[in-house]
Design brief:
The protein has 324 residues and is of the alpha+beta class. The protein has a single domain, classed as Beta-lactamase. The protein has 13 helices and 12 strands. Strands 1, 2, 3, 8, 9, 10, 11 and 12 form an 8-stranded antiparallel β-sheet that branches. Helix 1 crosses helix 9 (213-224) and helix 3 (70-76) packs across helix 4 (84-96). It is globular and about 60 Å long.
């Protein structure tokens, strides 16, 4: 089955590129509310399911034991820019759990946000693991290791108690047996399991259920601190600031997931060719299509269904546009 076109790139009045993909909206009973494409296909969710990876940090008691506040819970679910505020919060999480940056096993990369990157260079500093976009998640994992009373060494390996706890939580909330699913290594070195698109959407619907205490805490934290989830200019932060009733998270290779707590709906989307710019406008389109918004919220989402393209001289040259 060939997935439908979910976004197009236009230039000079014609379609220059087309992006295919699949998406699914599910309610908390597992009923598919709306969908297009092959939603039974298992894909790697990558960073889109960081909220699921945070569940054991809360349910184990680690978050309470170490006094993690909302901005720290939000950062544990983030793919952040590496801006100073992100680094500050990651270091706070480490300090509260008496962990050291040397324990990180996520790898170092330069901050995603250009100004933060340039500032480090001007100051003569190299990038560190705390600048990794996953450093908040890894600070949470190190806190979980401390709570479980296990050696944090190799906490990124699939057989480590930290990753086993995360796999159990993910399998339960998505109703999938991860033991029989393909898995690979994510960019930050932790395991990533392939999950059907429909099951990812189900997981997010369940995350926002009133009875899911960890999910309620995560969503509340992100609503209070959307900047921590991504950062300056990033689509996740922009959308959640503009429409606070949305929880959403991007993943590498064109994945988007999220939920609408007031409507009890979960959403998952995958762009076949991994284009993040296509996944963004397509996610906005899926959200806008749902009859759960105020007129103002819906208009904001409709406006986000397209993204203007400019060249190096800031001349408008085309658009990335969602295909309904």
């Amino acid at each position: 089955m060939m997935n439908p076109v979910i976004a197009e790139v236009t230039r000079g009045g014609i379609v220059e590129s087309r992006h295919r993909g699949a998406w699914c909206v599910v309610d908390q009973s597992g009923h598919v509310v709306a969908a297009e494409g092959g939603i039974a296909a298992a894909v790697y969710p990558r960073s889109a399911i960081k909220a699921f990876q945070c569940i054991p940090v809360i349910e184990s008691g680690a978050a309470d034991r170490f006094g993690f506040i909302d901005e720290e819970i939000a950062l544990a679910c983030s793919s952040h820019n590496g801006e100073p505020e992100h680094v500050r919060v990651a270091r706070s999480m480490l300090r509260k759990a008496s962990n050291d940056e040397a324990l990180y096993e996520c790898g170092a990369h330069w901050p995603i946000e250009q100004n933060a990157h340039h500032a480090l260079v001007r100051e003569g500093h190299d990038c560190q693991q705390v600048h990794n976009n996953c450093s908040g998640k890894h600070a949470g994992m190190l806190a979980l290791a401390k709570q479980l009373g296990v050696d944090p060494k190799d906490y990124v390996k699939p057989d480590h108690p930290v990753q086993r706890a995360i796999a159990r939580a993910m399998g339960e909330i998505c109703d999938v047996d991860l033991a029989v699913q393909p898995w690979g290594v994510d960019g930050c070195s932790v395991p990533t399991w392939a999950i059907p698109i429909r099951n990812m959407a189900l997981g997010f619907a369940r995350l926002c259920a009133p009875g899911h205490a960890a999910g309620q805490r995560i969503i509340s934290a992100v609503r209070a601190h959307p900047f921590m989830v991504a950062g300056t200019g990033r689509f996740d932060t922009v959308v959640m600031k503009a429409v606070p009733r949305i929880f959403m998270k991007t993943g590498a290779e064109g994945v988007y997931c999220g939920c609408i707590p007031h409507a009890g709906l979960g959403i998952a989307l995958k762009c076949d060719d991994g284009a993040g710019r296509a996944a963004e406008v397509a996610m906005a389109s899926v959200l806008a299509s749902l009859d759960v918004w105020t007129p103002d919220e819906r208009q904001i989402l409709l406006d986000l269904r397209h993204h203007d393209l400019t060249n190096w001289r800031k001349i408008d040259v085309g658009q990335v546009v969602a295909v309904s």
